[in-house]
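Budget justification aside, the reviewers requested a transparent look at the raw inputs and outputs of the sequence design task funded under Objective 1. We therefore reproduce one unedited record. The lines immediately below are the structure tokens for a 408-residue chain.
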């Protein structure tokens, strides 16, 4: 059947389970905070990297390899946890993920060499990746169908809040207390958060849980009834991951080219991420009313905005305002893409779908986006001009979403 406005919510016999929706507010709020912790812990190590290079005599290449390994580990964690969460529950998986990456982050403050740092960051990244589909699925289980896209988009935007928080914490703590202080804050926050999730969040019950074995595997996503949806969402997510990771990774460098004041650039980046939050919430709101057609429109608008960005003014203020508009669109599309599986797949396989599509897209798009951008920037092209190269892929994603929603 089709609901709403072109969103394919196919329900074979195993998905006829009745959903028991628990109290939404504690679940959504605490899952959003879990994503704040994810964003903080994932990106705080970026602020520690320059100091580690200086103090340990490490090379940027070694740190870069560590970042790449962390991306792969987080993608593996994301893909692997979905099936487990659908079978044994999203809540216990989220709690375990928070405890593991909380402890690993605390241990990071006490490592003495690159080998130890690599070991704890890979462990932490596995758990960080596992927390994303678990939190999104758990929060969306707690709300009515008419609010699921907005809820998923809110959790996506909460990661951006964690990114901003890590930057502000770095500016406040690192100069006087060292990079280890960031690890203490992030690790303790994750550990403390696990307790209220355990006590206050109630997971819904659906009657057919015991009989859902065939749905608890990635192969079910490619069954005839879901195959087209899975392929479309994988393409769309890979495209937006590549675009988002490129732009967010290179945005500080773009701003620093125009103004070398790091504090000023950090505030500008925080302002842009605030627009990211607004974009994700607006996209989720639109998708709850118009389904994947709304997401298709957002992707098309994002492609147009990226193309028009070539004409941004050369002044720092004009550039910042333009970047805020770009972040509004890119991260709005990103939040909507993460919300799409929530609307397409039934509850009993929602975490599996989220984990597989997000994990694989993050692995491919999250790696290729910054890498391709680096190649293009090596030709001395302006950062904004390079961003335009992602426009055609966003338009293709918009077309794929529109055609899928039309035929669903």
């Amino acid at each position: 059947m089709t609901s709403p406005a072109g969103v394919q919510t196919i329900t074979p016999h195993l998905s006829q389970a009745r959903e028991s929706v628990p109290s939404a507010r504690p679940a959504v709020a605490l899952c959003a905070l879990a994503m704040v912790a994810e964003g903080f812990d994932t990106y705080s190590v970026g602020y520690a990297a320059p100091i580690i290079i200086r103090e340990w005599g490490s090379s940027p290449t070694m740190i870069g390899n560590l970042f790449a390994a962390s991306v792969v580990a987080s993608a593996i964690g994301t893909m692997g946890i979905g099936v487990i969460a659908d079978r044994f529950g999203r809540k216990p998986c989220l709690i375990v993920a928070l405890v593991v990456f909380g402890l690993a982050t605390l241990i990071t403050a006490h490592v003495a060499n690159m080998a130890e740092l690599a070991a704890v960051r890979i462990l932490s990244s596995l758990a960080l990746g596992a927390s994303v589909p678990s939190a999104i699925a758990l929060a969306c289980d707690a709300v009515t169908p008419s609010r699921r896209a907005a809820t998923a988009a809110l959790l996506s935007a909460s990661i951006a809040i964690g990114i901003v928080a890590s930057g502000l914490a770095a500016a406040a703590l690192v100069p006087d207390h060292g990079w280890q202080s960031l690890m203490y804050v992030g690790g303790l926050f994750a550990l403390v958060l696990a307790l209220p999730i355990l006590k206050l969040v109630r997971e819904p019950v659906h009657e057919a849980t015991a009989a859902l074995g065939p749905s608890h595997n990635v192969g079910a996503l490619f069954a005839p009834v879901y195959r087209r949806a899975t392929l479309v969402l994988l393409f769309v997510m890979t495209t937006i991951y590549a675009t988002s990771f490129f732009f967010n990774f290179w945005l500080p460098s773009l701003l620093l080219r125009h103004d070398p004041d790091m504090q000023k650039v950090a505030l500008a980046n925080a302002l842009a991420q605030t627009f990211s939050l607004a974009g994700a919430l607006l996209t989720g709101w639109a998708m709850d009313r118009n389904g994947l057609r709304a997401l298709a429109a957002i992707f098309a608008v994002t492609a147009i905005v990226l193309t028009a960005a070539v004409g941004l003014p050369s002044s720092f203020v004009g550039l910042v305002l333009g970047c805020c508009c770009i972040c509004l669109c890119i991260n709005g599309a990103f939040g909507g893409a993460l919300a799409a599986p929530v609307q397409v797949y039934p509850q009993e396989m929602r975490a599996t779908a989220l984990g597989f599509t997000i994990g694989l897209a993050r692995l491919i798009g999250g790696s290729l986006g910054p890498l391709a951008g680096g190649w293009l920037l090596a030709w001395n092209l302006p950062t904004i001009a390079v961003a335009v190269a992602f426009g055609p892929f966003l338009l293709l994603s918009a077309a794929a979403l529109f055609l899928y929603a039309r035929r669903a």
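The chain has a mean pLDDT of 82. The CA atoms of residues 27 and 201 lie 5 Å apart. Computational costs for records of this kind are itemized in the attached budget.
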